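To illustrate the input format used throughout this study, we show a single complete record. The first block contains the structure-token representation of the backbone; no residue identities are included at this stage. The design step must infer an amino acid for every position from geometry alone.
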């Protein structure tokens, strides 16, 4: 079922947004933290749960029951400690975020029920404005209506490179009844090419101008533009205007975890992922999440195994827990011309991590990767942990997708490549329905990897000064032609 923006949806979104704070405290006397509580009897993986709970319970109800148990446990803890949480995490994590005093911080560190206390980190969207191709000199203003024109004019539909190169544009599969959660800067509900494909959304971060109902009609309205462009790549409609998405009949859930400036607090990302899993479990079917954001990290990502997470990285653990409940998480590799293994969440082996290429020549087998894309070991060099960290490549060079309010916009970045694979995952799940457990992620990832095109040889486009580059890329090129064979 598709949900259009209406009074009921507005009311539900205002309630969802007001139920959690969205600001970061900067007082010298307080600290923004994410707290992990000890959790031995309420695991996230199905196999671990089955060993502790009723064998006859459905997987959906098992996940929901444990989520409810974790929520009650966290609520009891913060009530006893007289802490006001910003967010309670019960579906991908067992804990909460809060702004605490130094005294509370030290008390939490010494509490026997607490496994860890972490300072809230700020991530960012992978800013596409800095990564325009040095080969294609498109002017962004050419795709906008000029300021002199008051009427918002939509453009005739353009089929972007992703649907063309992958074969999605001609596929019989369109993403029907598939749900994709876009954790980003929000979505502009006024954009005609996406509004009919919008489902329920959530706003850990408010739209920046809540009193302006034109700019911020919903709490999750896009006040940056990045999220609308990403959402369009996933599921812009096949309706003769603007752009065509990879899965034009999929339902997009806007989850606003980033500010208008592109800053994304870790506590808000975790809240968004937590809500996405909660919403997915309510339907009882696996879903896809896209995160075109992240940042560098020096922490070991640990290992997401068949029975759960092993390691000490609480961020990586949350993504693993999401995967164990049926969420197929797709993330951007990053735009720093660096090894993606050193980035969060790109380096996690519970995510499908996407690099960016500019061209693939089917006649010669040559793939040219963008000069900004992060790189890393591809699937053919993965070890037992199946983490390289790169899974697959998709188009990310001057990609046409939706502009805020109307028309199209050209942007470059792995932020543009990742949603192409998120849309592809929705198409795979449309043909091959999955279970509400870790196998959904494993199966979808393996099908994408097994059917990717292996370039005969590859190169990296020169840097913006014309200097040659030779970054290592072992990953294949996204292809969906197997769906219709």
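Output of the design step:
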């Amino acid at each position: 079922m598709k949900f259009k923006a209406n009074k009921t949806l507005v009311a539900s979104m205002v309630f969802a947004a007001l139920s959690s704070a969205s600001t970061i405290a900067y007082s010298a006397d307080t600290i923004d933290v994410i707290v992990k509580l000890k959790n031995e009897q309420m695991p996230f993986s199905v196999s671990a749960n089955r060993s502790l709970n009723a064998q006859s319970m459905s997987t959906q109800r098992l996940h929901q029951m444990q989520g409810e148990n974790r929520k009650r446990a966290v609520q009891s803890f913060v009530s006893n400690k007289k802490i006001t949480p910003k967010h309670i995490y019960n579906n991908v994590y067992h804990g909460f975020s809060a702004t605490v005093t130094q005294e509370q911080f030290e008390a939490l560190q010494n509490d026997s029920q607490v496994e860890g206390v972490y300072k809230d980190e700020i991530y960012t969207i992978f800013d596409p404005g800095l990564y325009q191709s040095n080969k294609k000199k498109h002017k962004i203003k050419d795709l906008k209506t000029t300021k002199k024109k008051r009427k918002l004019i939509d453009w005739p539909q353009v089929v972007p490179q992703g649907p063309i190169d992958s074969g999605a544009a001609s596929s019989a599969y369109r993403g029907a009844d598939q749900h994709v959660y876009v954790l980003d800067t929000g979505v502009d509900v006024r954009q005609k090419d996406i509004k009919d494909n919008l489902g329920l959304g959530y706003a850990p971060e408010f739209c920046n101008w809540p009193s302006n109902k034109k700019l911020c009609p919903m709490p999750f309205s896009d006040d940056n533009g990045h999220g609308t462009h990403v959402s369009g790549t996933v599921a812009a409609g096949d309706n003769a205007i603007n752009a065509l998405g990879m899965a034009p009949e999929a339902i997009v859930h806007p989850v606003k975890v980033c500010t208008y400036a592109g800053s994304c607090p870790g506590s808000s990302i975790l809240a968004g992922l937590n809500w996405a899993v909660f919403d997915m479990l309510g339907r009882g079917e696996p879903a896809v999440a896209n995160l075109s954001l992240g940042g560098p990290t020096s922490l070991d990502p640990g290992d997401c195994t068949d029975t759960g997470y092993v390691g000490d990285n609480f961020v990586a653990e949350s993504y693993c827990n999401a995967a164990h409940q049926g969420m197929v998480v797709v993330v951007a590799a990053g735009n720093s011309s660096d090894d993606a293994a050193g980035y969060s969440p790109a380096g996690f082996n519970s995510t499908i991590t996407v690099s960016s290429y500019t061209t693939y020549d089917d006649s010669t087998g040559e793939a040219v990767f963008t000069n900004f894309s992060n790189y890393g070991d591809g699937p053919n060099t993965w070890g037992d942990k199946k983490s390289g960290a790169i899974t697959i490549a998709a188009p990310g060079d001057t990609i046409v997708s939706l502009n805020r309010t109307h028309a199209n916009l050209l942007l470059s970045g792995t932020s543009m490549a990742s949603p192409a694979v998120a849309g592809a995952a929705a198409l795979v799940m449309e043909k091959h329905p999955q279970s509400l457990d870790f196998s959904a992620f494993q199966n979808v990832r393996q099908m994408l990897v097994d059917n990717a095109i292996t370039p005969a040889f590859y190169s990296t486009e020169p840097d913006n000064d014309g200097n040659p580059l030779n970054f290592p890329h072992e990953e294949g090129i996204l292809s969906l032609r197997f769906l219709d064979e």
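Structural context for interpreting the output: Confidence is low (pLDDT under 50) at residues 1-26, 130-150. The longest strand covers residues 352-361.
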